[in-house]
Amino acid sequence: MRCRISAMTSLKVVFSKIGVVAIQVCLLAPCETLDKVMCTLKARIGPMFRIMSPDEFQTNPWKNGGGITREVARHPVGEDWQWRISIAEVGTDGPFSLFPGMTRILTVIDGAGIDLLAVDGLLEARLHRPVHFSGDQDVNAKLVSGPVHDLNLIYDATAVEAAVNVILGPATVNCEAGTAGFLCLSGAVTVSGDGLPVGAFALGTGADIALEADATGILITLRDRA
To answer: What PANTHER family does UniProt report for this protein, alphabetically (predicted)?
Structure first.
């Protein structure tokens, strides 16, 4: 995640023997990015991850009014976001909302799957198999066998590099570069030693995610394009 400080402005991090005391804003030139500061903070205070339970997700109606999505996170906050992570329940066949200029990665996390019908062909979204498609496309969803839940990443590919991978335990994933999100689907998972309950989502940077042999989860990685 790269946040650029305005010209003639920089940050000064003040440490003591027990860690960070203060972050001072100073008038300096030239302008700098927060990357070096964030790396320094990570080295001194460790990983910066937030664990969210499902009741913290924000419930919103679909843009087309056809259903409900539970938003996990977006960046930046507001309407002009570059990426958004959400979980949706699809209970009936019907059209997907359009997100012009965006790329979508959809992963079925519960249920048999969905067939996504578009002008340029058919995408078969099946359990734990991420599929990519353009937010500019008119897509109609047809359920394979009953309702499904799916994890959605929608992002601006001109500004962000993104990937979605299903992780099966036993495994350990190091999340040093960029921003990472992890949804625990089953089994025992820890984020830098803290337990991640089934259905909870961890978001941040700098953590080690450990899955026991019985665990499954979905890892989302996001990195700003240079």
So the answer is: PROTEIN VES
Q: Identify each DSSP E strand in 64-178 by its residue range.
A: 68-75, 83-90, 94-95, 103-110, 113-118, 121-126, 131-134, 140-143, 148-155, 160-168, 171-175
* 113-118 and 140-143 strand pairing: antiparallel
Write down the pTM of the prediction.
0.77
What is the arrangement of strands in the sheet containing 216-224, beginning at the earlier edge strand?
48-52, 201-205, 179-186, 216-224, 160-168
- What's the pLDDT tens digit per position in 30-79? 334 444 444 444 444 456 889 999 999 998 887 666 678 999 999 998 88
Q: Which residues pair with 10 in a beta bridge?
A: 26
* Dist CA 183 CA 166 (whole Å): 10
> Which domains does the chain possess?
9-46 (no CATH), 57-155 (2.60.120.10), 160-224 (2.60.120.10)
Question: Which token pair is 137?
Answer: 């496309």
In order of 33, 122, 147, 151, 174, the CA distances from 109 in angstroms are: 37, 20, 11, 7, 23
If we measure between CA atoms, which residue out of 96, 100, 103 comes closest to residue 150? Answer: 96
d(Cα 15, Cα 204) in Å, to the nearest integer?
23
